[in-house]
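REQUEST ID: PR-0412
SUBMITTED BY: lab tech R.K.
PRIORITY: routine
TASK: structure prediction, single protein chain
INPUT:
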Amino acid sequence: MTKEERRSRNRVLVLSILGVLALFLVFQNLEFSKSESKTLPAVKKPAKRNLFDFNMPDSNISRAIYLNLKSAIAVDNKSRKVIYCYNAGEIRPVASISKLLTAMVILDNYKPDTVIAISKQDARRSSRSLFRVGDKVRAKDLLHAALLQSDNRAARALARSVAGSIKNFAKMMNKKADAIGLEDTKMVEPTGLDERNRSTAADCARLVNTARLMYPEIARITSLKKYVFKPVNRKRTKRLVNTNKMVFSKYKVEAGKTGYIIKSDYCLTTVLKNGAGKEITVVVLGAPGPQTRFREARRLANYAFKKAG
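STATUS: complete
OUTPUT:
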């Protein structure tokens, strides 16, 4: 082979190698482009934090005991088994049970020794309040009044101090309800006086348990029988008595809240423990009278404890 032929062969060999290398780079670029154009996986939303949930039955479980009310549920807290269920998925006004959600939002922004003055706005539609316009009260005492004696002026004053307005506070309540998985709960204000504050017996069971597990202060306050305090600018002390009369029953109240407006009738959601250490949740909505509410709650509790594992 001549010198010129060797040069020609080498040129062909080099060009062949360069061609293969070029094809390789083009192919890699195409693959890179394809990978870049792929649709990114959807970002998963944070899981809703519900510390107490249970499976709802397909139909009512209420034949064993008749109760004079519109809606109710009883749950074995250990097994999360629904023992009694009557219209528990029906959305209806829940009155001051709303204040459990109010307290959760307050505690997210809580400064217990902050002094709040009761305003004319707080006093609207709440003539039975312990507080007069101009009273200056610590936040911790207002929280006790809202939860123990269901004081509406206290709830409004706390909400206003946190959010600036009732409308803004309602948005915070609904955000909290959504965050803990209360899909059938909707609030428009912090007291429960508005019939548009709505939930279900099932959601009320979730609410009272999630509230006490996430916020031990709610459990502590709502299990008290009474509480005494004094407004900052008054000489007389004020005495609060728990509206949940189950605290005077044979069962230990772990947490709870009552409610009443005309549209809701008499309501109660509460967590009870018996002497054997069994724990149940009882929700009674739409009882026709204040005493009927507690009578039916006791009957339901007696039945549920017998059935609880």
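NOTES: Residues 71-307 form a domain with the Beta-lactamase fold (CATH 3.40.710.10).
REVIEWED BY: pending
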